[in-house]
Protein: Germin-like protein
Organism: Eucalyptus grandis
Amino acid sequence: MAKSVLLICFLGLAFAFAAADNSPLQDFCVAEAGSSVPRLNTLGISMARIDIAPWGINPPHTHPRASEILLVLEGTLEVGFITSNPDNRLISKILQKGDVFVFPQGLIHYQRNTGFGNAVAIAALGSENPGVITIANVVFGSMPDISVDILAKAFKVDKTVVGQIQSKF
């Protein structure tokens, strides 16, 4: 009987420790001043303000470790994301002040100001370190360069076109 009680107590303690999560109510650690993505550490989120000039863009990019919620504060934005293979379907919408849009984790997405004034938005990301991969920079500005032959075949263009694009990055 004593062995059974001891075993139950031991298992209870083991499960309690295995299931415990770190408390987000610990002392808060604010972001370092030099960080490119401001965040409140230990909460698992980050936010960014996005200012886009008239007809400007936030180019196609992805966040490999977070979904994004975008809230338009001022102006008009065209936003969209592309679903994964095989469909590669564009889901897009024109957003006005007060509208919200969600970009799923890892999918390529963009924003474009379609108005005549500046557009301002707040992006909330579900990670302290969401990462960002800007598609054109990665493909055409990698170090060392991706082979011109590979990119010409992938984009179905002449090698000189690929060289011209790579020279801009």
Observations:
- The chain has four helices and eleven strands.
- The longest helix spans residues 2-19.
- The chain has a mean pLDDT of 85.
